[in-house]
Amino acid sequence: MTKRNLAGMIEWLRPFGIGLAVFIAYYLGSDEISRFHIMGPFVVMIMSGTVAFESLILGEAASEKIGYAPNRAYQIQSGLANSATAITALLVYVLNWGRYADATIVIVMLLFFTFSALNHVASAIRGRNLKPVNLLRPAIALLLNGFMLPPMIKALAQ
Fold first, then answer.
1. How many CB atoms lie within 10 A of CB 12?
2. Sign of torsion over alpha carbons 117, 121, 126, 129
3. pTM check: above 0.85
């Protein structure tokens, strides 16, 4: 399997993984807090973890898919930051730091992907980067925000 194929597969791994995390959260969770404790950190691990993998391992194939010029120094730095977020989400979950820690790591992820979406919009406008993956990033960020904020608010309200 080539890096290019693997980069393409990751685009499908994200929604499948998130769907599985949500299913497990509602299957195992008994209330809003317990469901969000499963859903929140696992969605962060899936999203930030796959972005880290792409940045650190797939490099040029990941850049090509989005329509960005490869820049290994920046990709490595971005990959390490996303790794830190994913690892923190794992710690939040395993050490059961509570709903506020769950919410904090979800907010960090949502802010990153929202800011990243703005960068993709700028890339589309200024650089005429009209690759489908680049154009989908802002829509996916909006969906992710719309999907994650309601359960987080419900968990924090209890």
1. 9
2. positive
3. yes
- Dihedral (Cα; 49, 52, 54, 59), 10-degree rounding: -170
Q: Which residue has the tokens 């979950």?
A: 93
Cβ 41 vs Cβ 92: under 8 Å = yes
Check residue 135 and give left, alpha or beta (phi > 0: left; psi -120 to 50: alpha).
Answer: alpha
Supply the Cα-derived Rg of the chain in whole angstroms: 16
What tens digit of pLDDT does each residue of 45-62 get?
999 999 999 999 998 888
pLDDT of 106 > 90? The answer is yes
SS3 assignment for the chain: CCHHHHHHHHHHHHHHHHHHHHHHHHHHCCCHHHHHHHHHHHHHHHHHHHHHHHHHHHCHHHHHHHCCCCCHHHHHHHHHHHHHHHHHHHHHHHCCCCHHHHHHHHHHHHHHHHHHHHHHHHHHHHCCCCCHHHHHHHHHHHHHHHHHHHHHHHHHHC
